[in-house]
Amino acid sequence: MNFGKTVRGVFVLCVLVLAAGPGENAVTPAQEVPALAPSQVVKTHAYVSLDPVPRGKAFQVAVVVDINEAYHMNSHTPSDAYLIPTTLTPQLPAGITLVDTVYPPGHDKKFSFSDKPLNVYAGSVTLRLKLAASASASLGDATLPLTLRYQACNNSACLPPVKVPVSAQFKIAPAGTAAHAVHPEVFAATSSK
Fold this sequence. Notes:
- The chain has one domain: Immunoglobulin-like.
- It is about 15% helix and about 40% strand.
- The protein has two helices and 14 strands; from the N terminus they run H-E-E-E-E-E-E-E-E-E-E-E-E-E-E-H.
- It has helices at about 5-20, 185-190, and strands at about 40-50, 50, 55, 60-65, 70-75, 85-90, 95-100, 105-110, 120, 125-135, 140-150, 150-155, 160-175, 180.
- The protein is elongated.
- It starts with a helix and ends with a helix.
């Protein structure tokens, strides 16, 4: 056996394999799960349905939650009692009442760490609060502090649950003030949920 030819053959084979790129089962950097703190898994955006919000009028606040593509989070109605549901909790200012909180349905998805499919949110999800401004609501600028609580998981493990602060700003106007709908792209897309 010629040792020189064997070494050259192995070298050429290695070059060809590397040039061909990663195989089907290889993990490329794009497939690696980013190491994120639980609070970094989502980005939130808050929207108010009316501008301004007249006293005595119903309105909505929507929180759009964009979830990192390598993660998902339990829905508001997770598959098992031990799983932490996603919740949105307002700290209502005086004169603002909560009528309802609307959570969209999750999607059932199977993961290697669970025997049965789990009900989760992935990608982007919109949570809505139906609110009303009373006749005694303070006029002028208002802030609605919110707490988004969720547990994020990737395809192999879950992070600890976390609470993320979100806030919505709006203006309270006297009763009878003309108000116009804003952010129709957000509220029209969620009206059927």
